[in-house]
Amino acid sequence: MPLLVVGINHKTAPIAVRERVMFTPDRLPHALSEFRRVEGVNEALILSTCNRTEIYCHQAHADTHSPLAWLTGYQGLDAAEIKRYLFSLPQEDAVRHLLRVACGLESMVLGEPQILGQIKNAYRAARRYQTLGKLLNRLFQHAFSVAKKVRTDTAIGSSPVSVAFAAVRLAQQIFGDFGARTALLIGAGDTIELTAQHLHDRGIRHMLIANRSLTRAQALAGRFGAYPVSLANLRHYLKDADIVLSATASAQPIVTKALVEEALQSRKHRLMFLADLAVPRDIEPEVATLPDAYLYTVDDLEVVIQDNLRLRQTAAAQADEIIATQVNRYLDWVQSLDAVASVRALRGKAETVREQVVQLARQRLESGADATAVIESLAHQLTNKLIHIPSVRMREASAAGRLEVLRAAQEIFDIGPPDESV
């Protein structure tokens, strides 16, 4: 089973290198087709994300050079320059690597679930463009099953390890169901985008995105079915917000104690959750003194994140134990394919011998030979033809002192120690 993965990821290369190796979705069909044409490549799949580009292949013969050469050539890269960033993993290491990637153990954020969806997309693409065969198809199906098991049997994904996720999780602990809640997000950068994604994934129906640039607010709001508003109108919308999350680059606080106090009075002192994800802070720390306001800062969330990261690391160790077993399970299946082919060949050879002997028996019966004599002759010939070659090979093994062959014969044919007179 010459299985190989070659690639590059956030551990081996900086983003300036990774982006040069990455395959965009529109180029993937052609790339898959071209790589599948490389001599010796029987099956192929390409996984390409912002953090990793990995090529999985099953080859006729173990060969690291051809996939590496194809990757650098196809992407127009200097092989000597890029080689130090690339890795290659054969056989068992390749299987283990894929299972770890699928479970989020190789991700920049330990245990993040998004990578599994990206692997499934890569798998669907390879199936669509018919570059998968029996081995890779089974391998990736196995990876999906193992990832589900790890998610179910460990706490690898249960604890937030980003400030955005931690803030949303805390808000959910306070409010429970987000269905009837309104969230106000202040800013339009990466942190707010990630926060919006988490809120959207958890079913929030009403979400406002406030930014100084209304155009940027509109662009982000459009992705999540949110309502864009101008930061200049913050006072007007703050009173409607059950959840306020802010992450801007402002040098001065945007949400003051006076603004929140006014909003709480309009809300008849209904609870308000606020998370300040910015440094310097966007929300005046005095807001925490208001009786109906729950304010969390980056430092507060960092404590949660560190505790959760330790939980994930413990879960990762448990996941590795599961993966070790599942790597062997896949490899056992692959090895069983060799047995299937051998058994099929043995049966085919036995059928050929049977047909030859039966044909001779029929001819003798048609010539008027005694039926009992024909049956006995058929059985004798069939026995001799079936055991002739194994008997010869056992004698040769004995003469050469190859005791392991004799022991294998004893096990296969379910016989005792070979008789020296045979």
3D structure, described in words:
The protein has 422 residues and is α/β, with parallel strands linked by helices. The chain folds into 3 domains: 3-153, Beta Polymerase, domain 2; 163-306, NAD(P)-binding Rossmann-like Domain (Rossmann fold); 347-413, no CATH class. 56% of the residues lie in helices and 13% in strands. The protein is built from 15 helices and 10 strands. It has helices at residues 15-21, 28-36, 65-74, 79-82, 91-102, 114-128, 134-153, 163-175, 190-201, 214-224, 234-238, 257-266, 298-366, 371-399, 403-413, and strands at 3-9, 41-48, 52-59, 87-90, 182-186, 206-211, 227-230, 243-246, 272-276, 293-297. The strands form 2 sheets. A 6-stranded parallel sheet has the order 7-6-5-8-9-10. Strands 2-3-1-4 form a 4-stranded antiparallel sheet, sandwiched between helices. The longest helix has 69 residues, at 298-366.
